[in-house]
TrEMBL record:
Organism of derivation: Agrococcus carbonis
Residues in Serine dehydratase-like alpha subunit domain copies: 226-497
Domain of life: Bacteria
Occurrences of domain Serine dehydratase beta chain (ranges): 39-192
InterPro entries xref list: ASB_dom_sf, Fe-S_L-Ser, Fe-S_L-Ser_mono, Ser_deHydtase-like_asu, Ser_deHydtase_bsu
Protein name: L-serine dehydratase
Pfam families with a match to the protein in the record: SDH_alpha, SDH_beta
Length: 503
């Protein structure tokens, strides 16, 4: 809730393992915010690692808070900030970089425009000076150890990823306070007066009626059959509700460019990932080995799966970049950011993509976006909400649909490919060790990339008819997520996160 009340009461801090989370709040859930329609560019956002819900979303919330503080008319009186991280953000926010992302957002930096070197520079300056450049406008004393309050056991009923930012004046009275929910994929809802949940940015920028609306796989296939349009062309016509056609094409080409830069930077960078797990970056070494292998004269029987090792490499490169907090494209989240780029790099290098008036990369992303819209509209792409099936499973389905499309699949075959992609990730839990997006996340992206390629190829062998529809698989994912214990939903309280014992 945004308010300018004059109280500075500190809520009790609940902390520690083994205690039952306390659920507070007035909404049943914010899991299915009403977006009249989603754009493909809502699903593919240029941002920073390691997590769209724990990094990109909170950074956008912090940026929004600057506007809220400005609206109070007392921006220049702010002398102290407090940030409460609740539920999953409190449990794994430190490992996922939620605190640093909020510091960057409060400094006026946006996830889609911040340059990688700016991230370290800004954080170093805040830590060295003990001052945060609020909105890039004025310095405010900032001690991160005191400013951030981690409250993992306080879970809002609206969404497990909740945060509240409060600004105080010199008398320790509240100048502005706002609560947010980071609902996955960088999407953010603000908890406004009267318990209203408002998308950030404002609805006017997000809600657009489109000529061919769809929210289910069945509707999408039926629309394609009725209009004679391909999935990619139908999506592109819908995108025209937001911006001219050429602009959408150019922006999707830019997304592909950033994905390529990310892979290139990943395979050129060695060392150890941050966070304390001492995970070695492997892609640089693997890249050298693959180049050497491919250059060597061939002897013996041909290994038909050699290309898959390149797929693994591309996925690792992206997810190592993500874990290092560098620039990636959410696809549809940061944790699962390696799958679509890996499959696209595979398509670029090893597949005969069908020629069309639109570049195949643009068609791939449009179709993957259509699948993402269906999943987000009916279930979730948030690991904190439904487990890893919502992140890696969704990305796998999106990549499978996109790859099938550029191989020349029909809309029914595309729907089938996406269904195979999600069906075989059902039940996948989220249990990152130490709350870092490293183990199992990095390798899991490689596994799902290979699965997506196989799903597309299996669907292409058929005629599009199959038993379980994409819509049924998505609904099963939603129900499985609802039944899943919170231990397996980005809290690092179950699975590998606790099975792993530090020596
Ligand atoms: S386990 Fe899956 S959902 Fe959880 S942080 Fe890793 S990639 Fe994301």
């Amino acid at each position: 809730m945004t308010s300018h009340a004059t109280t500075s009461k500190t809520p009790p801090i609940t902390n520690g393992r083994g205690l039952e989370p306390t659920v507070v709040g007035s909404h049943a859930t914010a899991a299915a915010p009403v977006f009249e329609s989603l754009s493909v560019l809502d699903l593919f956002k240029i941002g920073i690692g390691p997590s769209s819900s724990h990094t990109v979303g909170p950074m956008r919330a912090a940026l929004d808070f600057l506007g809220q503080a400005d609206a109070s008319g007392r921006f220049d009186e702010i002398v102290r900030l407090r940030i409460d991280l609740l539920g999953s953000l409190g449990a794994t926010g430190s490992g996922h970089g939620t605190d640093t992302a909020i510091m960057l957002g409060l400094s006026g930096l946006a996830p889609d425009t911040v340059e990688t070197p700016q991230i370290a520079e800004t954080l170093e300056r805040i830590r060295a000076t003990g001052e945060l450049p609020l909105g890039g406008r004025r310095a405010v004393a900032f001690d991160e150890a005191k400013a951030f309050v981690f409250r993992p056991l306080t879970v809002r009923s609206e969404h497990p990823n909740a945060l509240r930012i409060t600004a105080y004046d010199a008398a320790d009275e509240t100048i502005a306070t706002a609560g947010y929910y980071s609902i996955g994929g960088g999407f953010v809802m603000r908890h406004d007066e009267g318990d209203v949940l408002s998308p950030v940015p404002a609805p006017a920028e997000q809600l657009h009626p489109v000529p061919h609306p769809f929210t289910t796989g069945d509707e999408l296939v039926a629309l394609c059959e009725e209009t004679g349009l391909s999935v990619a062309e139908l999506m592109l016509r819908n995108e025209a509700a937001w911006r001219p056609r050429e602009q959408t094409v150019a922006q999707l080409e830019r997304i592909w460019e950033v994905m390529q830069e990310c892979v290139a930077h990943g395979i050129a960078t060695g060392g150890i990932l941050p966070g304390g797990l001492d995970v070695k970056r492997r892609s640089k070494e693997w890249h050298a080995k693959l180049l050497e292998r491919d250059a060597a004269p061939k002897t013996g029987r041909p290994d038909l799966l050699e290309g898959m090792e390149w797929v693994n490499l591309y996925a690792l490169a992206v997810n190592e970049e993500n874990a290092a907090g560098s620039r990636v494209v959410t696809a549809p989240t940061n944790g699962a950011a390696g799958i679509i780029p890996a499959v696209m790099h595979y398509a670029d290098r090893f597949a005969d993509c069908v020629e069309d008036e639109l570049p195949w990369q643009v068609r791939f992303l449009l179709v993957a976006g259509a699948i993402g819209i269906i999943i987000k509209s009916n279930a979730s792409i948030s690991g904190a909400e439904v487990g890893c099936q919502g992140e890696v499973g969704s990305a796998c389905a999106m990549a499978a649909g996109g790859f099938a499309a550029v191989l020349g699949a029909t809309p029914a075959q595309i729907e089938n490919a996406a269904e195979i992609g999600i069906e075989h990730n059902l039940g996948l839990t989220c249990d990152p060790i130490k709350g870092l997006v490293q183990i199992p996340c990095i390798e899991r992206n490689a596994m799902a990339s290979v699965k997506a390629i196989n799903a597309a190829r299996m669907a292409k062998q058929g005629d599009g008819t199959h038993y379980v529809s994409l819509d049924t698989a998505v609904e099963t994912m939603r129900q499985t997520g609802a039944d899943m214990s919170d231990k397996y939903k980005e809290t690092a309280l179950g699975g590998l996160a606790v099975a792993y014992i530090e020596c």
